[in-house]
Amino acid sequence: MNRYLYDGTPEGLVSAIAAILEAEPDPQRVTLTGRQDTLFEEGLFVRTDPTAVDALFSRLRKQAPDAVYTLWYFMMAETEGLESSLLHYIALALEHGDRINGHLTHSDVKAVVSAARKAGREAHRMKGLLRFEQLRDGTWLARMEPDHNVIQPLAKHFSRRLRGQQWFIYDVRRRSAAHWDGRALQFGTLEQFSRPELSDEEKEVQVMWRAFFRSIAIPERKNPHLQKSNMPAKYWKYLTEKQGE
Amino acid sequence: MDIQEKLGILSGAARYDASCASSGCGREAPLRGTGNTSQAGICHSWSDDGRCISLLKILLSNDCRYDCAYCVNRSSNPMPRASFTAREVVDLTMEFYRRNYIEGLFLSSAVMKGPDQTMEEMVRVAEMLRVEEKFGGYIHLKVIPGSSPELVRRAGLAADRISVNIELPSSESLHRLAPQKRKESILEPMKLIGSEIGTSLVERRSSRNAPRFAPAGQSTQMIIGASPETDLQILRLSQGLYRRMNLKRVYYSAFVPVNEDNRLPVIASPPLLREHRLYQADWLLRFYGFSAEEILSDDAPDLDESFDPKTAWALRHPEFYPVEINRADYNTLLRVPGIGVTSAKRIIAARRFSVITPEGMKKIGVVMKRAKYFITCSGRPFDKPDREPARLRQRLLLGEPAPEPRQLVLFQ
């Protein structure tokens, strides 16, 4: 069984997978792990090669377009220790095409698809739970701390939905930000962040939203357990309706 | 009265409407406009009763001239009354939408001067949103029974979904509890909406620019437990609405006693379990290929409180089981308690690669708690194949019996 190492970056991972698929006749017997920089690590280190990454993506897009989505969401999940599973999954996807996502009795397929599904679920959830606040200068800011790195699909979603507004989405945990200026999306990181002042109108609308949130619940059907299971408390920190309760 | 006070009154008055869906229609934002809709629908929050919030659900007015026994807004109730202007509703919707609080607007109303005057105001809100604000988000309009066909048509052209509440499961109950509403004034707009949706779909096949009429379809709602109908009567009604009127959804709303009225039953709390069982049975009608007559019969016209309706069917039909996971077709898999649409599809996808073992079922993500009593994998049953009806009922209710403590036998 051959062992390979990569530099620990997402791009390095895909690059290493591309190289292994090229070099190894039976990728299912190969393991791949991130390099830890200890002295006695065993394995062949694969350097990141952007052209190999592009080539693998275009091959996948042709042979298994659904697997590209799975791969995309898998990367958002930021899992650890599943590199070999991903390698085996991609090898199988190239062999079987899109129907590979149904091969859930295979542990590697199952591991990759479940991780991707979790990230996808959170990306969908955040489309509803993200809250934009209007700042003094008229721009809009939404803060969040999701478990998975979902800023890309979220920003894309809002660039279609709130396209007349200028807004920022800020991932507090990863210090990453997306900016929409009314025409184009930009992604970047922010080293320092302090929440700017809200506009006066913003404070009024927030009061109204909280009033609506309170009165829309049927008192005779109060069910905090169901509320929490649908909307876990970890998301409440940035929810306008859950402030000042 | 300031807008916040109105909002408190008119959202509080709208909370008994069960509908919350924002799905069933995908649309891009209009040019220089705000808002799109998502095919899958998006929930934005969950209120203290655990129900999802996806739309700004409000009444245009709670100032009602009707006096329906079950309704919190009936004219004989002494309570604060309020009405929004169309502009106020439009502004609230836009302000909430820009902050991503909501998918759009759900607008209903008490009957103010009359059905047409009320409906006209409601349609105006939707048209202002679409035309003046270039709003591309979701709009659900309630149709006031007795509105003229022209207003119903305008509503369907502006909204994604429109609905007429059927209110109660039979016309006798409607007559008794809502004497000012007639059955025809509810069914006629329903039929009109159904045929307009059909026409629009046909026209759009030949021209992509043909107008869309209520693209997310038509729904309705009825109150459960305020009148004496059986569950079988209710499910037959829903089945008819799905089959003949082409409705997307029927909502069931457990009767909450908000008024004292000798025409109403006296109950301690809303019949939430019954509502839950009806929703489960409704799912069986829409996605699982069951008919109302399979789920219930004249001998047993009410849903079992202890078991979900599919498990109840399975217990009455031991001859149908066990189902062989590796061979059964999709519709047969769907008859297994604990196997839903997702699991059935996953089983079929996984079978194409290899035979499914009991461990495989767990990997696929099938919850085996109930399913294990009703299936085999490659001819082998799960665990103990005890399908004796009385014991099976017991196990499904209480779970596996704890193993009896046994003395170790050291010498034989």
Notable characteristics:
heterodimer; A: 245 residues; 5-stranded mixed sheet; 3-stranded parallel sheet; 8 helices; 8 strands; B: TIM Barrel; 2 domains; 3-stranded mixed sheet; 15 helices; 10% strand
Can you characterise this structure?
- With 245 residues, chain A is of the alpha/beta class.
- Chain A has 8 helices and 8 strands, in the order E-H-E-E-H-H-H-H-E-E-H-E-E-E-H-H.
- Chain A folds into 2 domains: 3-123, no CATH class; 130-242, no CATH class.
- Chain A has a 5-stranded mixed sheet with strand order 4-5-6-7-8, with helices on one face. A 3-stranded parallel sheet of chain A has the order 2-1-3.
- In chain A, helix 1 crosses helix 4 (83-96), helix 4 crosses helix 5 and helix 5 packs across helix 6.
- Chain B has 412 residues and is an alpha/beta fold.
- Helices cover 39% and strands 10% of the residues of chain B.
- Chain B has helices at 3-12, 86-98, 115-131, 149-158, 171-177, 183-206, 231-244, 272-287, 292-295, 309-316, 330-333, 341-351, 358-364, 368-371, 389-398; strands at residues 45-46, 52-53, 55-59, 104-108, 138-142, 161-163, 218-224, 249-254, 323-324, 375-377, 380-381.
- At the A-B interface, helix 5, strand 4, helix 6, helix 7 and helix 8 of A face helix 1, strand 1, strand 2, strand 3 and helix 2 of B.
